[in-house]
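Justification of computing resources. Each target in the renewal requires a structure prediction run like the one illustrated here; the chain below, 222 residues long, is used simply to show the kind of job we budget for.
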Amino acid sequence: MNKVTLNLRHCYGIKSLTATLDFSKERVQAIYAPNGVMKSSFAQTFHDISQDVESKDRIFQDRTCVREVRDETGSDISSGSVFVVRPYDKDFAHTEKTSILLVDANLRKEYEQLQARIEKQKGFLLDALQKHCKSKKDIEAEVSSAFTSSDQEFETALTRIQTELTEMHDAVFADVPYDTVFDEKVLAFLRTEEAQAVIAIYEVVLLVWTKKRQSLDRAAGC
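Resulting structure tokens:
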């Protein structure tokens, strides 16, 4: 296989990606991007190919997913020609295939134990969030897509909101079930022109009130 042509749209966190990877001179290609852009979605898409399953957009499932990955002859690459190694996967971590990635036996053991502990604590956190927000949705994907451009960057999302959560003194909507706010009917209503107009007015009023409050605070300080 000398070339791989990509045409991906709405594959998990990938909105659109077209590219041609040329392996005729070099057998390795490096694809890099900032955190939360598309790398995990890219890996998931190729994992789907290796498993012979369809890809999709987890959040906006009504969007049509396009996944065209072809060789230089224009043929779709086969599942047998794709192998995806994830940073950590609980179903894959403790096998010979991943263990050979770390030559030193002590380091390998330490690495596997550390990753297992991280995954266990992550599970505790997700269970607690699921119970607290009373949601039937995929909480990991919801948190990730709310604070990154992908639904598979949960750890990145937690890092981004760490400071905000640390400084938060009171969560006024903590007792409101998540699905009550982010219900599909509610979201559809918020997209209507009438709702958008009211929100725009509210934003203007809030801005005016904030500036007024700041002026009063400065006057009181003087």
